[in-house]
Amino acid sequence: MIVLYHYEPSSTSSQKVRLCLSYKNLVYTSKNINLECAEHLENEYLKVNRHGLLPIIVHNGNKIRESNFINEYLDKVYPEKSLVPKNAVDFNFMQYLCKQQEYLNENCLRYYSYISSNRIELIDNKWLKEHPQLDRRKFLRLVKYGLTKQDLHEIDNYLINELNFINSILEKTLALW
After folding, report:
1. Does residue 31 contact residue 17 with C-beta atoms inside 8 Å?
2. Looking at the domain covering 2-77, what would its CATH class be?
3. Are strands 56-59 and 62-65 parallel, antiparallel or unpaired?
4. Using an 8 Å Cβ cutoff, are 156 and 107 in contact?
5. Model confidence over 141-174: pLDDT tens digits?
6. Which of 46, 97, 49, 52 shows the shortest CA–CA distance to 71?
């Protein structure tokens, strides 16, 4: 049995795992943890994941964390419909795209997620002082008190350049198929 703890609709990491589960036609129990209500910082969820991060799956009593690792785990346990290319060059390219997605998510998209969903207003002193992960506390303080228009402009430009670069690679790759 697979239990997925995730946030729907706006967690890109959760979306990756839901896409994998769907692609592999796997049945799972959904536990939607509302980030905007800080359910990920409540004691009940912290018993599942002491860092308060999403997503996580519990499969046969085992906790598997981090979206890319969850997808790799599911691919090993359910290999019938593989996520991974057999060719070594294609496999390396897939790893690169996964790494870039993580980087862009952590360093660019996360800011917009907080800004566009008005989660900045929800950041309170408890989040700033008690979030289980140090890097998240630093991020929350930055979003709440220190993000300038210049910062957002730099994030915009970086994100646009990277997405254009990835798009050009994908266009070339898809043309070969």
Report:
1. no
2. alpha beta
3. antiparallel
4. no
5. 888 888 888 988 898 999 899 889 888 888 877 6
6. 97
